[in-house]
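To assess whether ligand presence alters the predicted conformation, the chain was also submitted together with N-carbamoyl-L-aspartate. Input:
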Amino acid sequence: MNMQHLLSVDQFDRDRVEALFAVARAAEPVARRRKVCRALEGAVLGNLFFEASTRTRISFAAAFCRLGGAVCDTTGFTFSSMAKGESIHDTSRVISGYVDALVVRHPERGSAAQFAQATCIPVINGGDGPGEHPSQALLDLYTIEREFERVGREVDGAHVALIGDLKYGRTVHSLLKLLSLYRGMRFTLIAPPGLEMPAELCAVVARRGHRIDVRTTLRQPLEQLDVAYATRIQRERITDEAIDGYTPEFRVDKAFVDTCCGPRTVLMHPLPRDSAPGANDLGTDLDTDPRTAIFRQSDSGVAVRMAIFATLLGVDQKLLGPLPDAGWRSPERIGPDDAPFYTLAAASRGFGAD
Ligand code: NCD
């Protein structure tokens, strides 16, 4: 796959997605602490986060380390020279003199592309304001494929609901475009008034011949969903919109799932979710439901991000060859509440049938 940077899901077609996922599958035993890989030994990543992040920053760093590389990072504006007025161009060019790849998160739409213009090393968009979050969408799609495989179905023809702040939520912007590469999709987009999916993104999906149903309430009956993908309201990006429609009825909880989801629906969220009591987000009352894939989804971030690095830096073949065993002991399950089918061993086989 000849790709210099990862800036947008627009760079993908289905073949490219499948090629990347083949590498992610090969990376899985390393991400799951069963095997060890040193393909990036000696390489250094610059992990530049000018916005809040926990999982994206750490999982990119963990992915690079699990390939044998090392990570240098900076977090927030306050402790970076951007606080002294330095431009994206200068920051990008300077750090490129120190490292082999850059992951950048910055509050401005289009900022990752600006970083890329100033450098010849690979730049990965870790979230450009309300624009895109391509690595998240790739790991979301990878998770959907994995969850569907377990129950013997394909992504083509799926009914996917994207729920919450669809205007500022960059993960759903990238995911909607990526899923629209599949055939015969059906999307139900549910956002409070004022926070609807941008019209140009709906137009892309409609042009590709998929069905789109736009709603402003969770209360209307829904035909059974294959995937329910909830998102957090992006309060940090909301300026003057009234969000009166964002009422407690907007909560994706057990009551919603009992009415709109079947036994095989996959429940997803990019995380973080607002876990405060009464928050209008994915309810914690679904945490022990095996359909809730949110932590399997976040876990997938390491394998998918390893695949992104291995592809951009040209070491993907090394992951596909035999790898030595890890020399330390890991627990069988990652979390005490993991679904019974979800053990580290099963996860590296693709959740298997156990
Ligand atoms: C998302 C983001 O930063 O866009 N988080 C993530 O990277 N998994 C979603 C969010 O912040 O709501």
